[in-house]
Amino acid sequence: MKYVLIGILGLVVDFGVYTILTYLKVNVELANIISSTCGIINNFLWNSYTNFRVKDHMLLRFVSYFLIGQITTVFTTLCLFIFVNKLDFPHILVKIISTFVATLIQFLLNKFFTFKK
């Protein structure tokens, strides 16, 4: 349950930053990279201290979490590039769907690698 709540908070951070940046006319791919990175850092801190309560090897865990997060950022960014720039889909719809898929992938990778005890 905590993971879900933290995930929702991360989505608020991600989509909040993304919305502000796209409103300011930052291109969708760059806005996604920046906003996803903010969400990743937010979620790592919350998950480390409240959910998984794993405080050893924090730098190594952060690097692992960040790299896994960036893998999913690449996925969402590619989705935005293909579906928004090439196929003219609405950017917010692509962001929502690709983020949902990426979140599932990220949860599984982090559960079995980053926060493995």
From TrEMBL:
It comes from Lactobacillus crispatus. Keywords: Membrane, Transmembrane, Transmembrane helix. It comes from the Bacteria. The chain crosses the membrane at residues 5-24, 30-50, 62-83, 89-109. It is a multi-pass membrane protein. Residues 2-115 form the GtrA/DPMS transmembrane domain. GO terms for biological process: polysaccharide biosynthetic process. It is found in: Membrane. InterPro entries: GtrA_CellWall_Glycosyl, GtrA_DPMS_TM. The keyword Membrane applies. GO terms for cellular component: plasma membrane. Belongs to the GtrA family. This is GtrA family protein.
